[in-house]
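Bumping my old thread because nobody answered last time. Still need a sequence for this structure:
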């Protein structure tokens, strides 16, 4: 008898939670949205429908505390005006604010619920034209915790003359309905409303659309045909790296307004990029716009598909930290330069100058030597200005070194391209992202190189990047001179050992002239840059350095008073004496050869 009663109690205990949870599975099957912009472009009426409801005495709606890709808190609740809710009979329901970003709605006895509110909007169009409005979805759409996994639909009631563009996909059966599989995908689509200028092209059988809105330039100021050509070039470099596009259709949204520069944010099958309209019209912001565009497009794979577990599925209620933002953003920064170079949008030599400028930014940061790439990634939610350093810039430098090291280790048969291509297939999107140390495992799996020491030293640790060890593998020279190192002001021209002297430098003050050919330093013959660098290691600021040059048909001797360098000097340049193997690695990096696996 005792055993029988225990079994009944056990069965009841098992059944109770299943029955309790069952109503959550059998009432709501989707969340329906209606968006109604006002014709003046200054506000938008929002309506969220939850139907049917079953035995729910309350519903808690929330607004995200952050938006993916931003890594900082936001006060989106301040935008929500006139929040109210009605049931199936149109009866107003009581709303209780639980905290600034969450509201409890009384649904006792309700079988359906409509939640309504108004959002302010900014008209980005020129005065007198049809409005143009840009919406970031995490700051636009509410959610409930137990409906995030459900299908979300969207209808848009547009004023006359308005258009709508977004990464949202049209429902299979209703052309005026947009459908997303869950809330994460639903809010991963920025929206453009109003007067829109639409363009598109086909790449590898796939449509890619680009939309221009806001304060529009003329075609003479900004050629649409030329921009289409550039976008296609950038897009197809990404295709060549990964071997396919991870979308049915892609949408670039370009908003031109009064922003002081260029800003972009990545999304699953679209991007939203904002740029200063004057900079586009006068051409000064075209190159920065190209760079941001390439960066956001590469995020299609690296961040949106290749991501750590913390970055998907999302928790919108708190900070979401990762030690891998140096990879997410920094490797992407490296590839936005790669894409521009391979797409033919930059001149020869530009790539090395860009990498040099990037490391100078890293080296001159307050956090250099105290804030590792992993630590800089983790601390982005509570940054310390005294230790600030950009994980974008740190990761870009590491991307260059990793790419060259991988190519050298595999005799240029594998590259960082291959690692990323492998990761895009290995990480099981839309499931959870990769685990700790999986980046190292992926590099080893693709290349056979055990990169644990590299990660320990330069990513988790604070040891200087190994330029002198790695760059020569690709036929590259590196000049790294600290700010307090000796300075003589000698610069070389195009001819072998021919000087290019600027006024006001120690060499200029000593009497050296442009066109002199350097023969000796400190009494020793110098025939190349390496021997010049070796001679300079033997002097300190305050020394008198004897030099000998050929000027015309005669030899002349001068004494340079060695000064102290006022700033760091760092430059990557091609070694003209590189071996064929080194040149193959260098050129492969710039051209994408060999093709990725």
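Sorry it took so long. Here it is:
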């Amino acid at each position: 008898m005792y055993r029988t009663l225990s079994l009944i109690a056990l069965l009841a205990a098992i059944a109770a939670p299943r029955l309790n949870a069952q109503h959550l599975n059998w009432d709501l099957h989707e969340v329906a949205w209606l968006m109604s912009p006002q014709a003046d472009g200054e506000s938008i009426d929002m309506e969220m429908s939850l139907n049917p409801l079953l035995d729910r005495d309350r519903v808690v709606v929330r607004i995200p505390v952050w938006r993916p890709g931003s890594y900082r808190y936001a006060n989106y609740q301040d935008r929500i005006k006139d929040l109210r809710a009605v049931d199936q009979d149109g009866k107003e329901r009581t709303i209780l604010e639980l905290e600034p970003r969450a509201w409890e709605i009384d649904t006792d006895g309700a079988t359906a619920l409509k939640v309504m509110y108004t959002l302010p909007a900014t008209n980005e169009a020129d005065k007198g034209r049809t409005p143009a409005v840009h919406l970031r979805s995490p700051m636009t759409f509410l959610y409930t915790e137990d409906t995030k996994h459900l299908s979300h639909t969207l209808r848009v009631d547009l004023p006359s003359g308005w258009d709508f563009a977004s990464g949202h996909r049209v429902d299979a059966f209703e052309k005026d309905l947009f459908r997303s599989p869950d809330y994460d995908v639903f809010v991963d689509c920025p929206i453009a409303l109003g007067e829109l200028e639409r363009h598109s092209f086909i790449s590898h059988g796939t449509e890619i659309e680009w939309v221009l809105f806001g304060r529009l330039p003329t075609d003479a100021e900004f050629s649409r045909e030329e921009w289409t050509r550039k976008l296609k070039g950038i897009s197809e470099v990404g295709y060549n790296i990964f071997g396919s596009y991870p979308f049915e259709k892609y949408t670039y949204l370009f908003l031109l307004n009064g922003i002081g520069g260029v800003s972009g944010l990545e999304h699953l099958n679209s991007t939203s990029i904002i740029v200063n309209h004057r900079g586009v019209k006068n051409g000064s912001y075209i190159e920065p716009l190209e760079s941001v565009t390439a960066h956001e497009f590469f995020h299609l794979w690296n961040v949106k598909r290749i991501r750590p577990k913390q970055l998907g599925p999302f928790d919108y209620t708190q900070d979401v930290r990762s030690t891998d933002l140096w990879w997410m953003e920094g490797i992407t920064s490296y590839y936005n330069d790669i894409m521009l170079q391979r797409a033919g949008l930059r001149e020869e030599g530009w790539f090395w100058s860009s990498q040099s400028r990037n490391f100078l930014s890293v080296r001159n940061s307050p956090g250099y030597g105290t804030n590792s790439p992993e630590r800089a990634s983790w601390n982005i939610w509570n940054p310390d200005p005294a230790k600030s350093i950009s994980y974008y810039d740190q990761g870009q430098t590491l991307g260059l070194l990793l790419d060259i090291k991988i190519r050298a280790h595999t005799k240029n048969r594998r590259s960082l391209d291959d690692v990323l291509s492998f990761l895009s297939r290995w990480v099981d999107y839309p499931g959870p992202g990769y685990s700790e140390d999986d980046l190292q495992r992926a590099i080893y799996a693709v290349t056979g190189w055990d990169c644990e020491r590299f990660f320990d030293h330069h990513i988790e640790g604070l040891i200087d990047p190994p330029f002198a060890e790695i760059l020569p593998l690709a036929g590259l020279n590196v000049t790294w001179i600290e700010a307090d190192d000796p300075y003589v002001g000698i610069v070389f021209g195009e001819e072998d050992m021919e000087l290019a002297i600027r006024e006001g430098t120690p060499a200029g003050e000593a009497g050296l002239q442009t066109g002199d050919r350097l023969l000796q330093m400190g009494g020793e013959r110098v025939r190349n840059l390496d021997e010049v660098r070796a001679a300079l290691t033997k002097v300190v600021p305050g020394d008198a350095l004897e030099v000998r040059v050929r000027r015309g048909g005669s030899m002349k001797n001068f004494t340079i008073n060695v000064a102290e360098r006022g700033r760091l000097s760092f430059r990557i340049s091609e070694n003209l004496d590189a071996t064929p193997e080194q040149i193959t690695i260098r050129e492969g990096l710039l051209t994408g050869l060999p093709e990725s696996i």
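The chain is about 30% helix and 25% strand. Let me know if any region looks off to you.
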